[in-house]
Amino acid sequence: MLLLTSTSDVVRVVTSAAGAVDVHASYVDNASGTFTPGRTNTASIVTATTTTVVAAPGASTQRNVKHIAVSNEHASVANTITVEHFDGTTAESLWKGTLNTGER
């Protein structure tokens, strides 16, 4: 479980190489006791870059990230992936590893 509790909190994926990395995230928003499920399928990340994969919740809302799946879909390029929480000022690494072709 990962909580995004301010309008600045996001989850980002950092890729190290040009390739094709797909990301899926599932979450539940809590707005004053009203729970709303949500999910995001990030378009294929094809450059070495930092990409927001779970957006910040709205005001007075907490976002509970339940699942993140990262998949290297490129046929020949390995990619070092970092999943990080960013609060608008500080980035904290949550997971880092190399995904070879076809790995998730």
What's the short version?
With 104 residues, the protein is mainly beta.
SSE string, helices as H and strands as E = EEEEEEEE
The biggest beta sheet is recorded as: 4 strands, antiparallel
Helix content: under 10%
User: Can you tell me the overall shape?
Assistant: elongated
Q: So how many helices?
A: 0
Strand % is: over 45%
Major β-sheet strand ordering: 1-6-3-4
Oligomeric form of this entry? single chain
The low-confidence runs, each spanning 5 or more residues with pLDDT under 50, are: none
What is the straight-line distance between the termini?
Answer: 19 Å
The SS-based structural class is: mainly beta
Radius of gyration from the alpha-carbon trace, in angstroms: 14 Å
Total strands: the figure is 8
- How confident overall, as mean pLDDT? 97
Walkthrough of the structure:
This protein has 104 residues and is an all-beta fold. It is 0% helix and 62% strand. It is built from no helices and eight strands. It has strands at residues 2-4, 10-15, 21-31, 34-45, 50-54, 62-72, 79-86, 91-99. Strands 1-6-3-4 form a four-stranded antiparallel sheet, with no helix packed on it. A hairpin with a 4-residue loop joins strand 7 (79-86) and strand 8 (91-99). The protein is elongated, with a radius of gyration of 14 Å. The mean pLDDT is 97.
